[in-house]
Amino acid sequence: MPFVAPSKWVQTTSLQDLVLLTKALGDETRLRILALLQDHELCACQIVAVFELANSTISKHLAILKQAGLIQSRKQSRWIYFFLTPQPQPEIDAAFVWLNQCWQADPRLEADRRKIKDILQIDPVELCRRQNGKDCC
Amino acid sequence: MPFVAPSKWVQTTSLQDLVLLTKALGDETRLRILALLQDHELCACQIVAVFELANSTISKHLAILKQAGLIQSRKQSRWIYFFLTPQPQPEIDAAFVWLNQCWQADPRLEADRRKIKDILQIDPVELCRRQNGKDCC
DNA sequence: CCTATAATTCGATTATTAACGAAATATAGA
DNA sequence: TCTATATTTCGTTAATAATCGAATTATAGG
Hints:
Two copies of one chain form a homodimer. Chain A is mainly α. Chain A has a single domain, classed as Arc Repressor Mutant, subunit A. Helices cover about 60% and strands about 10% of the residues of chain A. In chain A, strands 1-3-2 form a three-stranded antiparallel β-sheet. The longest helix of chain A is centred in the middle third of the chain and has 13 residues. The radius of gyration of chain A is 17 Å and the shape is globular. The N terminus of chain A is likely disordered. Chains A and B meet through α2, α3, α6 and α7 of A and α2, α3, α6 and α7 of B. Chain A binds a DNA duplex through α5 and α8.
């Protein structure tokens, strides 16, 4: 039976986790996604519609936020919905407290909020058709 | 007399400031510098001695931290001492509160603390001689 | 006023990250 | 089971950031 190192040995240090977290927060698009997710859970196609970036780009941003422990996802019907991690580990919870203090009343975030409000009116089926159809760009 | 836009017009939004701040925090070396500065103010040559990076690199990191409003500096004799911004604006103060929650008892930060303890024993004159002399590297 | 020197700036290089479109994956619903 | 499609992964390119050594700056102290 081969020797297996206890999982403790490969555990990342809190500094490494923290760097993962601060790097995840160190991008404007990702901060704006987090701000939107404070109000609603959203599927990828809705986030794509807000930022007008390629869906592969948004997917990457979401993966970074997820790996940092900031968000989670669940599948419902044909869509994957992303939402802020509920009751996250303390260091992430504290990060949210901090961010909330910072980003209230920012004009760009307000604009994003208005935009998502319109997007939420559109049926995701129609939204995805627009994104995957050739009338895009 | 030329028209000069009121400074208000070029004022950055809070989101931009926040991105500046999160980017400044999104680097391991800079987080470690901040952790060290929680205990002591330090001059550039002392920080260089801890990290074994070129003084130009450390200088850049310090400039980024300073621009984000996290640190300040003062000149004393031949050295410039860097220290955490006392009573900073609320969003930065909240960031420090958050960081303090995160980085207590991390082994790498502990090691840095031990190292700076030794370095503080050395006269800065001698420290800088070692760095600028040819016996380095 | 000089000179020595601590720190910064500059210019170049390397490494990392963001972005895209296309291809692959996975699966809901027919 | 099969097909349509929402999301992810892949491969590449472009932009940004970290790093270095050398040159420059600014100034403390002789």
